[in-house]
Amino acid sequence: DTPIFWLPYFSQPLDGDLGYHFIPGARSNWGAYLLNSYGLMLGEGENRRILSRWNFDLRSERGVAAGIDLLDRDVERENPNITGFSFYYANDLDPTISRTGLPRPQLNEDRWRAMLQQRFMLPFEGGERWRIDANLSALSDNYFLEDFDPRAFSTDPNPDNTLGLFRQGENS
Length: 172
What we know:
The protein is mainly beta. The chain has helices at 73-78, 144-148, 150-155, and strands at 19-27, 31-42, 50-59, 63-72, 84-91, 110-122, 129-139, 162-168.
């Protein structure tokens, strides 16, 4: 009854958002880097619809960063622009590094981003459907996206904050 031999194993789900993923590389403003993410579904049984993606990134010029993304899969299928809640924190070793070469003001080494992009359905009686769409972003400084999320910076360097109340009825 005593096990004498044990072999560890690693299994990876076929769903591209789940499991462990890593991206090694190098950039002029990051140095050598290793971006790590681990995705898993939260909930029990049929309620497993929240995808949590845990990020842990290492950059030789910038330091260590970590974050979490929480995505509601049901809402994401309906509208891919509604991404849920995201928080990312970086302890920047050198906030003065810039790809543009322009001098920067003094920045704090604790840099972060928090985002909420969510749709809330309101349970009102009647034939109309009411909802609230939230698109809220908070950044520690104006250079965060340029330094840590160049893809988002190239499409939306200054994210806005919007909160909308919408009504949909039979005739409108």
